[in-house]
Amino acid sequence: xxxxxxRGAAPVLxxxxxxxxxxxxxxxxxxxxxxxxxxxxxxxxxxxxPYEEAAxxxxxxFIGDTFGEAxxxxxIDAAYAGFGHxxxxxxxxxxxxxxLLELFHGPTLAFKDFAMQLIGQxxxxxxxRSGERITIVGATSGDTGSAAIExxxxxxxxxxxxxxxxxxxxxxxxxxxxTARENNVHALAVDGxxxxxxGLLKDMFNDFTFRDEVRLAGVNSINWAxxxxxxxxxxxxxxxxxxxxxKVSFTVPTGNFGDIFAGHVARAMGLGIDKLVVATxxxxxxxxxxxxxxxxxxxVQPSISPSMDIQVSSxxxxxxxxxxxxxxxxxxxxxDELKATGGFTISQGALQxxxxxxxxxxxxxxxxxxxxxxxxxxxxEVLCPHSAxxxxxxxxxxxDTPMVTLATAHPAKFPDAVEAATGLRxxxxxxxxxxxxxxxRVTRAPGDLAAVEEIIRERTAV
Length: 462
Ligand SMILES: *Cc1c(COP(=O)(O)O)cnc(C)c1O
Known about the structure:
It contains 19 helices and 15 strands. By secondary structure, it is an alpha/beta fold. It has a domain of 215 residues: Rossmann fold, CATH 3.40.50. The strands form four sheets. A six-stranded mixed sheet has the order 3-4-14-9-10-13. It has a five-stranded parallel sheet with strand order 8-5-6-7-15, sandwiched between helices. The longest helix is centred in the first third of the chain and has 19 residues. It binds pyridoxal-5'-phosphate. The site of pyridoxal-5'-phosphate has 16 residues, from helix 11.
C-alpha cells in the first residue's frame, strides 16, 4: 500500500514511513494511492463483532506489511482496553431516525482517543523495532493535546511537545495537558490562537534542518494513521443501522476536517453513506466555502465549542485533492495562494464534486446552548457543546435515511457551557476525579518559530 502527497511532489511512502513522517516534505498530506474496498458481504459481516475485530478488518488493508496480523490485533486490543464502555463507540437513539454516536468513552473523554491511543501503540511498536528516538510536536485546540499526552506519556523513545493557545482552552482540557508527571511530556502555552499553533507546527516541518535534527514526528490529523483509525466507527455505526442493505447519513462537528474526512474514506471503501454533513460553530469557514466556493479565512472568534475554533482546516486539503481529480500541482497552487493571501477560490468543477459529497450547516452560540438545554429535556442526553452543534445541524438535514450525529466529547470536559445550558454541572468520571488537585507544569512560549524551536532543542538535547 503506497501513500502519496496531496501536493504531488514528495516521495511515495509505505504505511510506516507515512505514519512516522506526518506532513509530507512538499507541505502536503499523505493519502493512500488507491483506497481498498470492502465488498457488501464483508461489510455485512462486521455487524455484531467486537469493536476491535471490526477495527482490524477495516484497517488491515491499509497497513501493508508494517505489522503482522497477530501484532496488529494486539496493538488494537491494547489501544481500546482503557475505554470506559464495552462497545467503545455506542449508538444512542435521540429520535425516530436520529442517533448519537458516543465517541467520548476514551481516557481523555474526546473522540481523539480513538486515533491517538492506537497510534501511541503503533509508534511504540515501530520505534522499539528500529531503536530510534523521535520528537512528537502537536498543535491543539484542546483535545488533541490531552489525547496525545495520554497516549505517549512515559514511552521510552519519544518526547512529546504540545502547543496550545494560552487562555483559550477549557480548564479541564488545560489540566489534562499540564498535570502529566512524566518527564517526556512538555506542555507549551503559546501566545496566540489555534491557527498560530498549527502554523508554528507546519513551519517546523518545513524547516528541514530542525525537522531532521530533532527527528520530528507529527500526530495532528495531518497524520494519515489518525484518519484511518477514525474510519472504523463509521462502519460499526452504519452496520448497526442496517448497512450495507440501507444507506446511512452522518453529521460531524468539524474543525480540522479530519473526523469527517474519515467518513469520506469509509464511503470510498464502499460503505453506503448518503450525506456527510459538516457542522460548524460561528467559525464557519467550511460552511461558507461549501456554500460559496470562496475559502476565505477570518479572525477566529472564541466560542463555547473551542475545539472547533479553527480557520485553517488542514484536512480540507485531502478533500480538495479528490475534488480536483487528485491533481497535486493544482492543490499546491491553491495552498500557496492561501498562505500568501489568506484565501482561494475553489473551481466550479471541484466545488460541484465537494457538494455531491458534503452538505453543511452553521450554528450560533445561542442555538448551541439552546440545543443542549432542549436535548437534555427531551431525551435526558447531556451533550457537550461540540456535539450540540452537530445535533442542531443534523436536525436541519433529517430525511428518511437514518442520521447519525457524532458526539465528539464528554459534557464534563466543557462543564461551564453545559452548566449554563442545563443548570447542572456534569461530573467527571471517577477515574479522573482528582484532576483539580494534581499539580500543573507548563512552559509559556511566544508565538514565534525560532523561540519554540529553541525550547524543543534544549529539552531534547542529550
Ligand atoms: C477535535 C474536535 C473536533 C473537530 O474534529 P476535526 O477532526 O478537527 O474536524 C470536534 N469536537 C471535539 C470535541 C474535538 O475535540
